[in-house]
C-alpha cells in the first residue's frame, strides 16, 4: 500500500527531503510488567492503619489501598470507630498525603440504603417535591438523620418455574425453603406482592421472616391460599440511578470533611445487592470513578495486560485474594510463589486483609501480619516488583497501550521465590508449572542456551510434558510470532509438540511440531513447523492462553528447549524510498553500463564486512532499469548500535528502491519512529536528518 511517504537522498551531497503524514510515539507503550496491590477493607482503629502506613514509609514509591465506609460507625475490639471524628479524618488525610488510596466502600457498608446527616431536602426534586431519581423513599430516624432507600429495578413474575408455594401471616411465610442459600439467595419474589428481603429462616427452613428490600418491617395480612414464590439472588437488583445516588453520597461526605473524593468503588460484603462491572461502569464513570471491584460477574477481570475488554468495564472488576497475606495457610514463601508466578505471566496480584479477622482462625495474629507485610515490601524492593494502588493499576492495565512486540513468554532465568520440593529440588522458573511427575521435564542450567538466560528445560520422559505455562496474559490479538530453540540427538528423529490452548474460550487447541534433532541449538519459528499448522492467530476475545510442550519421540534426555518467544508479528510496512547515486547520476537519471549490470549478483552482497547482513534477499529475474543493490537500515537513534532491522533491496535508475522480487519496498518492523540509513557498496552511506514514522495502515 502506498503511504505517500517519500525519502530522497543525494548520497555524498547529503540532500534530504521528507514528506510524511503521521507521527507515532512508540515510547507511549507501557511494558507488560505486573505487580501487586495491598488492599484492606473496612474502618479500623487509627493506630492499626497508621502502623500499616509506618511500615510503608521507608518505601516512598509503594502505596496501599484501603476501602472505608464514609458514614460508618463500628464497634471494633471494644472501641467505637467514628469516621467523622476529627482524629479519624486527620488520619485519612495523612494517608492521602502520603500517596495511599482511600476507596469508596459505600457510606454504611451496604447497597440498598444509607443513613445521611445531610438535610432531607438535598434528596428531593424541588419542582415535584418527590425524591430524586434513584431514591424510592426517605425515612426520618429518631436521631435526626435520614434513611435514604435506594430504588430497585422493576420486577415482574419470572418466566421460569416457581420454586414453590407458601402461605402468608403478616411477615411470616410458611413453605419449603430448603433450596435457599441464606447468604446469596437473600430475596424472594411473591406473586402478586413483589420482591422481599429474607431476614431469617425458622424451623428448618419451613418458615421465612421477611422485610421489604430496605429491611423495614412489613405486614402482608393473612393469606391462606398458596402463593407462588421464586428465590432471587443479590445480582441485578439495585438500579443504576440508585447506585449513582449511593456513590454521590460518598463524594458529598468526602468534600464536606475535607477529604479527596475516592475514584475506586469496592463492593461491601453482606446480604444486600451486588453490582456488576457493567452496572458500575454505567453509574460511576460519569462521576469520575476509574476502578472498582464487585462480586456481580463470573469471571471477574483477569487483571492481565491486553485483556479482552470490548465494553471498557473490566477496570471495575479488579477483585482481590490473589494472595492472602493475612491467612495462616499462606506463609511468606507461599505468598512469594503466588506473586512471582502471577507477575511472570503479566498479571497484577491483589492481596487481602480485614483487620478485625486478625488473630482468629484461619488468620494470623496482627503482629505476624505486620511482619509479613514488612518482609514482602523488602522482597518487592529487592526484586523491583511494583507495589501500586487500585487507581494506579487500573490506569496501567486498562487505559495505557501495552507494547505489542514485547516477548510475553516468561524468561527461564528468573526464580524470585526460591521455592523447592522433592520433584523440583532446584526450584522452577516463575510462570512455569512445577513438575508434578517424575517424567516431566527438568529445569536446568545450560550456559549455551541461546537467549543468554543460561537455562533450559530438558525432556525427562517419553511422550511426556517438558514444561507447562498456564494463564499466560499479555497476549496480543491477531497473527503471532512464536520462536523456540531446540537441540537433541541428531541420530534420531526427535521432535517436540507445542500445544496452544485457550482455557477461557471454546476454541480448539492448536499444536505445532518442531524438530529437536540437532547437536547445536537451532531456532524454529511457526513457518518451520513440520505439521500442517504454520501460523498462530489469536482471536480478539482471548485474554489468556496455556502453552504446553511435549517430547514427541522415543525416550531421550538429550532433547532440550529454550529461548521461547511470543509476541505480535511485526507488520510489513510499505514505504516509498528514493535515492540518487552520484557516481551513476546524469541528465536527471542514473545509468549503468550493460556490461556492469550483468555483474549485479542474484543474491544480496552485504553478507561480508563491514555490513555482515545475513538476509536471504535474492531475485530470479533482474528488474529492468536496476542500478545495484542497496541495504536499508532502521535505527531508533543515530547510534549504529540502536539498529532495529535491515533489509537488502534493489535500486532503479529513477531512484526508486524496490524489493528484490520487483514489488514495492516494504520492511518488517514494529510501529514507531526510526532513522532511515541506506548503504551502497560504492558510495558513502546516508542517514535521514530526523526520525521517520512507520505506521501499519493495513492493521490500523
What's this, in brief?
This protein has 700 residues and is α+β, with helices and mostly antiparallel strands.
List the helices and strands and how they pair.
Blueprint: E1 6-10, E2 15-19, E3 35-37, E4 39-41, H1 46-56, E5 65-68, E6 73-76, E7 79-82, H2 86-97, E8 101-104, E9 113-116, E10 135-140, E11 146-150, E12 164-169, E13 172-175, E14 187-190, E15 194-202, E16 207-211, E17 222-232, H3 240-257, E18 264-266, H4 277-284, E19 291-293, H5 332-344, E20 348-350, H6 366-382, E21 386-387, H7 390-398, E22 442-445, E23 455-458, E24 465-472, E25 478-487, E26 495-501, E27 510-515, E28 522-525, E29 537-538, E30 545-551, E31 560-568, E32 572-574, E33 576-580, E34 585-586, E35 589-590, H8 594-597, E36 626-635, E37 643-652, E38 657-658, E39 666-668, E40 672-680, E41 683-687, E42 692-694
Parallel strand pairs: 1-33, 3-20, 3-21, 4-5, 5-8, 18-19
Antiparallel strand pairs: 1-2, 6-7, 9-11, 10-11, 12-13, 12-17, 13-16, 14-15, 14-17, 15-16, 22-23, 23-31, 24-30, 25-28, 25-29, 25-31, 26-27, 26-30, 32-39, 34-35, 36-37, 36-40, 37-38, 40-41, 40-42
Helix pairs in contact: 1-2, 1-6, 3-4
Amino acid at each position: 500500500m502506498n503511504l505517500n511517504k517519500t525519502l530522497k537522498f543525494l548520497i555524498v551531497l547529503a540532500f534530504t527531503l521528507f514528506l510524511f503524514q503521521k507521527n507515532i510515539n512508540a515510547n507511549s507503550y507501557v511494558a507488560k510488567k505486573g505487580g501487586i496491590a495491598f488492599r484492606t477493607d473496612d474502618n479500623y482503629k487509627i493506630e492499626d492503619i497508621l502502623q500499616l502506613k509506618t511500615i510503608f514509609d521507608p518505601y516512598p514509591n509503594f502505596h496501599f489501598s484501603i476501602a472505608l465506609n464514609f458514614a460508618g460507625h463500628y464497634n471494633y475490639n471494644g472501641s467505637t470507630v467514628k469516621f467523622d471524628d476529627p482524629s479519624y479524618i486527620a488520619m485519612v488525610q495523612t494517608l492521602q498525603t502520603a500517596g495511599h488510596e482511600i476507596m469508596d466502600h459505600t457510606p454504611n457498608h451496604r447497597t440498598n440504603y444509607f443513613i445521611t446527616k445531610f438535610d432531607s431536602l438535598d434528596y428531593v426534586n424541588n419542582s415535584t417535591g418527590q425524591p430524586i431519581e434513584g431514591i424510592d423513599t426517605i425515612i426520618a430516624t429518631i436521631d435526626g438523620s435520614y434513611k435514604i432507600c435506594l430504588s430497585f429495578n422493576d420486577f415482574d413474575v419470572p418466566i421460569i418455574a416457581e420454586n414453590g408455594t407458601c402461605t402468608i401471616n403478616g411477615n411470616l411465610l410458611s413453605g419449603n425453603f430448603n433450596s435457599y442459600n441464606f447468604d446469596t439467595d437473600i430475596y424472594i419474589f411473591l406473586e402478586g406482592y413483589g420482591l422481599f428481603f429474607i431476614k431469617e429462616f425458622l424451623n428448618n427452613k419451613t418458615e421465612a421472616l421477611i422485610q421489604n428490600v430496605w429491611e423495614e418491617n412489613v405486614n402482608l395480612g393473612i393469606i391462606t391460599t398458596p402463593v407462588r414464590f421464586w428465590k432471587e439472588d443479590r445480582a441485578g437488583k439495585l438500579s443504576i440511578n440508585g447506585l449513582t445516588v449511593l456513590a454521590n453520597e460518598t463524594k458529598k461526605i468526602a468534600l464536606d470533611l475535607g477529604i479527596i473524593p475516592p475514584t475506586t468503588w469496592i463492593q461491601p460484603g453482606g446480604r444486600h445487592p451486588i453490582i456488576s462491572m457493567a452496572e458500575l461502569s454505567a453509574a460511576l464513570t460519569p462521576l469520575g470513578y476509574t476502578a472498582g471491584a464487585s462480586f456481580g460477574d463470573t469471571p471477574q477481570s483477569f487483571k492481565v495486560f491486553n485483556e479482552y475488554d470490548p465494553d471498557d468495564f473490566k477496570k471495575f472488576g479488579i477483585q482481590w485474594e490473589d494472595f492472602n497475606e493475612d491467612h495462616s495457610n499462606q506463609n511468606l514463601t507461599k505468598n512469594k510463589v503466588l506473586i512471582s508466578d502471577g507477575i511472570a505471566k503479566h498479571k497484577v496480584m491483589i492481596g487481602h486483609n480485614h483487620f478485625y479477622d486478625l488473630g482468629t482462625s484461619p488468620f494470623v495474629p496482627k503482629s505476624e501480619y505486620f511482619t509479613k507485610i514488612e518482609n514482602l515490601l523488602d522482597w518487592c524492593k529487592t526484586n523491583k516488583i511494583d507495589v501500586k494502588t487500585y487507581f494506579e493499576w487500573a490506569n496501567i492495565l486498562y487505559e495505557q497501550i501495552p507494547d505489542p512486540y514485547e516477548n510475553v513468554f516468561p524468561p527461564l532465568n528468573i526464580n524470585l521465590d526460591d521455592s523447592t520440593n522433592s520433584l523440583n529440588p532446584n526450584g522452577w522458573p516463575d510462570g512455569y508449572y512445577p513438575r508434578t511427575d517424575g517424567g516431566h521435564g527438568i529445569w536446568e542450567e545450560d550456559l549455551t542456551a541461546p537467549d543468554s538466560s543460561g537455562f533450559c528445560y530438558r525432556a525427562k520422559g517419553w511422550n511426556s510434558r517438558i514444561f507447562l505455562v498456564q494463564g499466560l496474559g499479555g497476549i496480543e490479538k491477531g497473527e503471532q510470532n512464536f520462536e523456540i530453540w531446540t537441540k537433541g540427538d541428531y541420530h534420531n528423529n526427535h521432535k517436540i509438540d507445542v500445544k496452544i490452548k485457550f482455557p477461557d474460550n471454546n476454541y480448539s487447541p492448536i499444536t505445532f511440531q518442531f524438530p529437536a534433532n540437532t547437536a547445536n541449538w537451532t531456532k524454529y519459528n511457526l513457518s518451520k513447523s513440520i505439521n500442517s499448522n504454520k501460523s498462530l492467530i489469536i482471536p480478539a476475545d482471548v485474554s489468556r492462553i496455556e502453552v504446553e510442550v511435549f517430547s514427541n519421540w522415543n525416550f531421550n534426555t538429550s532433547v532440550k528447549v529454550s529461548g521461547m518467544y511470543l509476541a505480535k508479528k511485526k507488520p510489513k510496512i510499505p514505504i516509498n524510498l528514493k535515492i540518487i547515486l552520484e557516481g551513476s547520476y546524469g541528465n536527471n537519471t542514473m545509468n549503468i553500463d550493460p556490461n556492469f549490470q550483468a555483474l549485479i549478483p542474484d543474491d544480496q552482497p552485504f553478507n561480508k564486512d563491514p555490513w555482515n547482513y545475513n538476509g536471504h534477499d535474492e531475485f530470479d529475474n533482474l528488474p529492468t532499469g536496476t542500478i545495484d543493490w542497496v541495504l536499508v537500515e532502521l535505527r531508533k537513534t543515530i547510534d549504529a548500535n540502536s539498529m532495529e532491522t535491515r533489509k537488502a533491496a534493489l535500486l532503479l535508475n529513477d531512484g526508486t528502491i524496490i524489493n528484490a522480487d520487483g514489488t514495492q519496498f516494504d520492511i518488517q518492523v514494529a510501529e514507531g519512529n526510526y532513522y532511515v540509513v541506506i548503504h551502497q557498496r560504492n558510495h558513502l552511506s546516508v542517514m535521514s536528518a530526523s526520525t521517520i514514522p512507520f505506521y501499519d495502515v493495513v492493521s490500523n
